[in-house]
Write a structure and sequence with these properties.
- Helices cover about 35% and strands about 25% of the residues.
- It is α/β, with parallel strands linked by helices and about 525 residues long.
- The protein has 3 domains: about 1-190, Rossmann fold; about 200-390, HUPs (Rossmann fold, 3-Layer(aba) Sandwich); about 410-505, GMP Synthetase, Chain A, domain 3, CATH 3.30.300.10.
- The strands form 3 sheets. Strands 2-1-3-4-9-8-7-5-6 form a 9-stranded mixed beta sheet, sandwiched between helices. A 5-stranded parallel beta sheet has the order 12-11-10-13-14, sandwiched between helices.
- The structure holds xanthosine-5'-monophosphate (XMP).
- Xanthosine-5'-monophosphate binds near residues 349, 396 and 472.
């Protein structure tokens, strides 16, 4: 069963696909202006029209082509419009829209006006998450209002005859009470679809895709030992067999203690025959000399990485024959934050995989591009990735370079590497490692005065970052016990030479991000 989601560029559009998958259906997110031919190829069982930042009352609002819209609404298949999609469907049937002075942003109380299968099993009143300024103010005969809020007279509607629905609020976000049940009702009760999709199907589809796209030669993948690249490597292994899959581990010198050896031995244990470790630490350090701007650092690391990988590919081709594809463990949040996830997403920071692009002559294969981290973790477990890899905290592609604020030097890296080891050790020892999304120290470009022994010290300040999060897109700082923080700070100032002060970061994302650069 396939649900096609038309993406109008809304902040939460991609979350819809995730919820649809959680409910047990295949989700295909497509740009709103997809051609009729492409749309038909999906053979959708239901459609969802997402929210978006535009106004239908503006001169040239984003619209599907007339034929595509006609096909969606006239197909007899169930259709659900959310926010912008809600307004678009309402106006398609002749409803009046209105732009008001103020908007309705954040929580609102939704009141059900009449029973409907979409709201079956739900209370008559609940909290919903709103984010709009335009509203549907008057409905034509063919549509009927199902619910309202104090601000929106038509917070939900349905077509009297067709299975066409609109919701002004966002059922896909967790802040909406019963949102998951509403989406479930739409797919199971209104659309009468039976869930038939699981992570195993996803796996099978990706393996088939790997065969199709990478089948003509050898496949290359730059691995980090983390869950994303390990999962992709295992998909390739299933698709192509061990002789044609080449794993390249580039030691950038920006990694944690013992990382190269640990990753290589885990990967060999998983059955890979070709694990090539390339030591490029000096090159990276040289290129990073004098670079202090965060985006510039990311660009330099990505560029150098691509250069080292391209060189390695040429060497490997001499020994093993032609390579056809480059696989990467890019996940959805990497794309959205880099501003490369469909129309209308803005750049927050250039995530390594996305910024790097592909090696010349190799087709890019990114089987995890639509998944969130926790979905990848579930997939990884199915593939037999060891628990310790699955549970490991995410570590960014540019590594410690983006945790040394300011210029990166060998000394600062050595200091931060040691501090990172201590932080990881203490979180594990206290049984807190699995309770946080990430926990790591950051070396600030600041020194402070202290007293060590009986003498004055003038040393670096470390910031400690520890957050809880579901998917890395938003995060809250971890409320850690004082006793634990005290012990950890004690170890850091005692054992890491050059540090005499530790700060604990109590900022959420947003407004901060998890990493510092
Ligand atoms: P931010 O700092 O944007 O990070 O809140 C969100 C999550 O993404 C990780 N991150 C990266 N992962 N390549 C990656 O593979 C990158 O370039 C990158 N930058 C940030 C970060 O550690 C956090 O888990």
């Amino acid at each position: 069963m396939t649900v096609v989601i038309l993406d109008f560029g809304g902040q939460y559009a991609h979350l819809i696909s995730r919820r649809v998958r959680e409910l047990g259906f295949r989700a295909e997110t497509v740009p709103y202006d997809i051609s009729l031919g492409e749309l038909e190829a999906f053979r959708a069982d239901a459609y969802i029209l997402s929210g978006g930042p535009s106004s239908l009352l503006s001169p040239d609002p984003p619209m599907p082509s007339a034929e595509a819209l006609q096909r969606i609404v006239g197909s007899g298949k169930p259709v659900l419009g959310i926010c912008y999609g809600h307004q678009l469907l309402a106006s398609f049937f002749g409803a009046r829209l209105e732009r008001r002075e103020a908007g309705e942003y954040g929580p609102s109380t939704f009141r059900l006006l009449r029973p409907d299968p979409l709201f079956e099993g739900l209370p008559r009143e609940f909290r919903v998450w709103m984010s709009h300024r335009d509203s549907v103010s008057q409905l034509p005969e063919s549509l009927v209002a199902l619910g309202e809020t104090g601000y929106s007279p038509v917070a939900a509607f349905r077509h009297r005859r067709l299975k066409v629905y609109g919701l002004q609020f966002h059922p896909e976000v967790r802040h909406t009470e019963h949102g998951y049940e509403i989406l479930g009702n739409f797919l199971r009760r209104v659309s009468s679809l039976a869930p038939d999709w699981s992570v195993d199907d996803y796996l099978e589809e990706r393996v088939a895709e790997a065969r199709r796209r990478c089948g003509g030669g050898n496949a290359l993948i730059a691995v980090s030992g983390g869950v994303d690249s390990t999962t992709v490597a295992l998909i390739l292994l299933k698709a192509l067999g061990r002789e044609r899959v080449h794993l390249v581990f580039i030691d950038t010198g920006l990694l944690r203690e013992g990382e190269a050896e640990r990753a290589a031995s885990t990967l060999r244990r998983l059955g890979f025959s070709h694990v090539h470790v390339v030591d490029a630490g000096e090159t990276f350090l040289e290129r990073l000399r004098g670079v202090t701007d965060p985006e510039e650092k990311r660009r330099v690391v990505a560029e150098t990485f691509l250069e080292v990988l391209s060189r390695e590919k040429v060497e490997l081709e001499k020994r093993y024959g032609k390579f056809t594809c480059l696989a990467q463990g890019t996940i959805y949040p990497d794309r959205i934050e880099t501003g490369k996830a469909g129309r209308g997403s803005v750049k927050i920071k250039s995530h390594h995989n996305v910024a790097m692009g592909s090696v010349e002559g190799l087709e890019l294969f990114e089987p995890l591009r639509d998944l969130y981290k926790d979905e990848v973790r579930r997939l990884a477990l199915r593939l037999g990735v060891p628990g310790e890899v699955v549970e490991r905290h995410p570590f960014p592609g540019p590594g410690l370079a983006i945790r040394v604020v300011g210029e990166v030097t060998a000394e600062k890296l050595a200091l931060l590497r040691k501090a990172t080891r201590i932080v990881e050790e203490e979180f594990k020892r206290a049984g807190l490692y699995g309770h946080v999304w990430q926990a790591f120290p950051v070396l600030l470009p600041a020194r402070s005065v202290g007293v060590k022994g009986d003498s004055r010290s003038y040393e670096y300040v470390l910031a400690l970052r520890a957050v809880v999060s579901e998917d890395g897109m938003t995060a809250s700082f971890a409320r850690l016990p004082w006793g634990f923080l005290e012990r950890l700070a004690g170890r850091l100032v005692n054992e890491v030479e050059g540090v005499n002060r530790v700060l604990y970061d109590i900022t959420d994302k947003p407004p901060a991000t998890i990493e510092y650069e």
